[in-house]
Amino acid sequence: MNNRPCRTLYFQNLNEKMNKSELARRLKMLVSRYAYVVDVTIWNTMRLRGQAFVTFKTTDDAAKIKSILDNFFFLGTSMKIHFAKKVSRRYKTKQELVFRPTKTLVIQKLGNNISSAVLEAVFKDEKGVIRIRHVPVKKIALIDFIDKNLCEACFRKYLEDGVCINGEKYVLETL
């Protein structure tokens, strides 16, 4: 695993027989004694059983938890803790969001009530927009620009508050 500190820790060797929600609750109770927990993510798939990702408010909190609880005996097993390879995008701070040079921006997890016409209306005043591709099945939209600079300008414009579509806030991402 990655040794570079980040705000998300990867927990291994957790009790596989326990209910997912109960395991998440108990893990959160354990680690919240030492630091504020932003999120606990656990899956039920066979491949990911016994593993969890826990995101903290700061990197220092994550490092403290790792040093305290690595090899800690928890629910019948000795759990292993590593820094995650990377922080989930939804928990990145504004400073961690980086524009990767591209001519296309992406909006994910669009609601069912959003149509191509609504997207056109939202982005009609943005400079350099060539076209807007709406993929309702995948609930995404792709906004193509003439060049990377205009794409970056749009990205920076909506970085702080996101783009508001039908009263909902969405985050712009790069490909």
UniProtKB/TrEMBL annotation:
<dbReference type="InterPro" id="IPR012677">
    <property type="entry name" value="Nucleotide-bd_a/b_plait_sf"/>
</dbReference>
<keyword id="KW-0694">RNA-binding</keyword>
<keyword id="KW-0687">Ribonucleoprotein</keyword>
<dbReference type="InterPro" id="IPR000504">
    <property type="entry name" value="RRM_dom"/>
</dbReference>
<dbReference type="GO" id="GO:0003723">
    <property type="term" value="F:RNA binding"/>
</dbReference>
<dbReference type="Pfam" id="PF00076">
    <property type="entry name" value="RRM_1"/>
</dbReference>
<protein>
    <submittedName>
        <fullName>U1 small ribonucleoprotein</fullName>
    </submittedName>
</protein>
<dbReference type="GO" id="GO:1990904">
    <property type="term" value="C:ribonucleoprotein complex"/>
</dbReference>
<dbReference type="InterPro" id="IPR035979">
    <property type="entry name" value="RBD_domain_sf"/>
</dbReference>
<feature type="domain" description="RRM">
    <location>
        <begin position="7"/>
        <end position="86"/>
    </location>
</feature>
